[in-house]
Specification:
heterodimer; A: mainly alpha; about 0% strand; B: mainly alpha
Chain lengths: ~190, ~140
């Protein structure tokens, strides 16, 4: 296989993995939230506002009375998650279409607004996770260091996807630019 | 480069990602176990009669990571040399899968409150190991 083309295909593979991973990081907290609902009826951890807003910690919300506005904001977070999922799926389809195109120029690689929406969603979840962690540490009076791993992974995957898309677009533009220079020389 | 070669290169990239992620996730699972252990100590309403976390548990992710990362290095080398993926690369996800399933059992002991949240990471690692097996099989089958 030719070096540069292999590199391009590997970058495409990494981009697909990044987008699929980002999609998984949106879904997973919801998945284990549903499982945890069956788990317990113990009223153990005091509900905090960030915990109530974060997907994956709804158990606490169900066990303690909550404010109405918290429910409304949680619904907005769910909507934000749904928009992120749709954008990520669209970006994934665009990447696959660009990969399968006959020539790179016929299907340029555009991720659309997926990175912006995704970065916003995961930044929000990271802030809520850190806030929740500080709250938990105050409540339990022991120092538990548990960074919000899922939101941080989502952020990193989005940043990696952005970087890869930029590199691929530069690589795509290069042969055309070289051709342009040749034409100019002639 | 034709379609088949492009697909092969994409498979290589996906395999590398699977191997790296499958190597990292068990570490996160063990860290979460130690976190849950501390939280159970604090919880007033519930207590476990056993320790969830033991330092010996760290052996599992370390072993798994060593095998998977060495397989990853061999995969990268194979991408450049074009040689087929050997039995060592094929064996690594099997070992990774066995160790992740052992970690799943350790995490399932986390009880109803934490068990489901803890088990996700090793389960995901197991899924990635299975994906890696399929990718290796597919790459070896289409070896030109």
């Amino acid at each position: 296989m030719k070096g540069l083309q292999t590199k391009r295909a590997v970058y495409y593979g990494l981009l697909i993995a990044c987008l699929a991973g980002a999609l998984l990081t949106v879904f997973l907290p919801f998945a284990y939230e549903e499982v945890r609902l069956f788990g317990t009826d113990a009223n153990l951890v005091p509900m905090s506002i960030p915990a109530a807003l974060m997907p994956g910690t709804m158990t606490h919300l169900l066990q303690k009375p909550s404010y109405d506005w918290v429910q409304a904001v949680y619904a907005a977070v769910l909507l934000f998650a749904a928009v992120t999922v749709i954008q990520l799926i669209r970006a994934l389809l665009r990447v696959l279409r660009s990969l399968n195109a006959e020539t790179p120029a016929s299907a340029p690689l555009r991720l659309g607004s997926a990175p912006a929406v995704g970065l916003g969603f995961f930044a929000l979840l990271t802030i809520l996770g850190i806030w929740n962690q500080i709250y938990l540490n105050e409540q339990t009076e022991i120092t538990l260091i548990s960074p919000p791993i899922w939101p941080l992974s989502g952020l990193l995957l989005h940043l990696a996807a952005l970087r890869l898309a930029r590199v691929l677009n530069v690589e795509r533009a290069r042969p055309a630019a070289d051709q342009g220079c040749k034409n100019f020389d002639h | 480069m034709n379609r088949r070669q492009t697909n092969r290169a994409v498979c290589y990239a996906l395999l590398i990602v699977c191997l790296i992620a499958a190597a990292i996730l068990p570490f996160l699972a063990v860290i979460s176990l130690s976190f849950a252990n501390e939280l159970y100590d604090w919880m007033p309403g519930i207590s476990l009669n056993y320790e969830l976390y033991s330092p010996w548990l760290m052996v599992l992710p370390v072993l798994s990571a060593l095998c998977l990362l060495s397989a990853c290095v061999k995969t990268v080398r194979s991408l450049y040399t074009g040689k087929a993926l050997g039995y060592r690369v094929l064996a690594a996800p099997w070992l990774g899968l066995t160790l992740s399933l052992m970690l799943c059992i350790a995490c399932a002991r986390g009880g109803p409150f934490f068990g489901a949240a803890l088990i996700i990471r090793p389960l995901l690692a197991a899924g990635l190991n299975i994906c890696a097996m399929f990718l290796i099989g597919s790459l070896n089958k289409n070896d030109p």
